[in-house]
Amino acid sequence: MKQTWLLVGGALVVIGFAWMVLVGIPHTMLVRVEAPPGLEPYTESQARGRTVYIRNGCIYCHTQQVRDDAFTSDVARGWGRRPTVPADYVYDRPHLMGTMRTGPDLINVGIRLPDPEWHLIHFYDPRAVVEWSIMPPYRFLFDEVPEEEVGPDDRVVAIPGRGPDEPVVVATPDVLALVDYLRSLNRSYPLAQPAGAAEDAGIAEPGEPAEVDDRSGRTMP
Ligand code: HEC
User: Fold this and answer.
1) Of 20, 4, 40, which is closest to residue 186 (Cα–Cα)?
2) What is the pLDDT of residues 67-94, one digit of tens each?
3) Ligand 1 center to residue 62 CA distance, Å?
4) If we measure between CA atoms, which residue out of 72, 56, 48, 62 comes closest to residue 106?
């Protein structure tokens, strides 16, 4: 081969171009994204809940992103009041946007489902609250203890349909942190955008409250 340099040079140009388009340009666009005033950093408990979320593979069935109205019905389904923007994720490392939607999107689940008791029952037995649910139960995030051994600080969960002779279900610190994290998921604060900037940045204006919904029957309040 006589013109090896041409081959090597060509390969470098292709790789360099791909790097620029896929890494360099996006980096310069996103590097200065600042936290919106309405977004709080995670508390210690919420951050712990986030690691429980990661450890248990929730991302394999749940996304955390409301996509633009122009392409999808995410807002109409009740998954958010507006599409999410890069600033919504400034505290998320690693981000958990996900790609699979076997279950509903969770980036605004804190608005939809604020009741911690609902979440605890749902993790122990999803079908106790959603009859048709195909979400797996996470019973290993609870302890089952005889009633007389329940301590004063234990969080007992009243699981529907459990008999008085059965051991009591007590939430572990991990599942309490996970619920704390889920309840913090709320990306509905207004985004500080100078007039007209939303359109320039490709950000849709907040949509009307949802009328349609996914099968869960839960919409944005
Ligand atoms: C195998 C897929 C699967 C996995 C894994 C999974 N889920 Fe789900 N999830 C679902 C499905 C399907 C639903 C809808 C039915 C229901 O509400 O139970 C759902 C519903 C939910 C809801 C209620 C959302 C709403 O708006 O109604 C929450 C909260 C939730 N999941 C959290 C989690 C968390 C946290 C984990 C990880 C510990 C997890 N899920 C793992 C499939 C899954």
Assistant:
1) 40
2) 998 999 999 999 999 999 999 999 999 9
3) 7
4) 62
